[in-house]
């Protein structure tokens, strides 16, 4: 086995992780703005949905190429985007693509709540290497907090679908929901630090000098 093949696959981080997660949604938003001005609201939505589906598949391909893995959340999102995007295009009904966030948020909420209630912090299995040093209690609290957050976001998406236009819903989905997610993640940092999270990278062992080897 070569040295390169023995190296662990790099994990998405920083801008790479942000682009993989946010890029397809941003592509949907931009494509809708462009297509709507040329084709009208309904056909613009159909065209943007197709772009969204392609962008999600491209993001998965980039994740496989650069990181040799696709996260479970990306798999779930891609399946729902392609599935509900296909229904949106087939029936010419944007309500299908609007329903996708409710199913994603609701599914995550149920999954995490089940883990929290049974004493199994499922987030630890997904993000264990990222949150170095976090205690079992910290993982349980983090799992509970995100479960309630996702449940709230599922309800929020349904309220938006029922009360505002597609344009407003899309704007809130791209910018509002993204901002809320970042803010909620930041609000959890003090709790994580109190429960063992370390933000410092572990020190690398010093390499022996030629004199020491001799």
Annotate the secondary structure layout:
Layout: H1 3-6, H2 14-39, H3 41-67, H4 72-91, H5 95-117, H6 122-127, H7 136-163, H8 166-187, H9 189-194, H10 210-213
Describe this structure in words.
It is a single chain. It is globular, with a radius of gyration of 21 Å. It has helices spanning 3-6, 14-39, 41-67, 72-91, 95-117, 122-127, 136-163, 166-187, 189-194, 210-213. It is built from ten helices and no strands.
**From the alpha-carbon coordinates, what is the Rg to the nearest angstrom?**
21 Å
Mean pLDDT: 83
Anisotropy-based shape: globular
Secondary-structure element order, as H and E?
A: HHHHHHHHHH
Oligomer: single chain
Counting structural domains, the number is 2
Low-confidence stretches: 1-6
Helix proportion: over 70%
Could you give the distance between the termini?
29 Å
The number of distinct β-strands equals 0
Structural class: mainly alpha
User: What is the percentage of strand-forming residues?
Assistant: under 5%
- Please give the largest β-sheet: none
**Count of alpha/pi helices:** 10
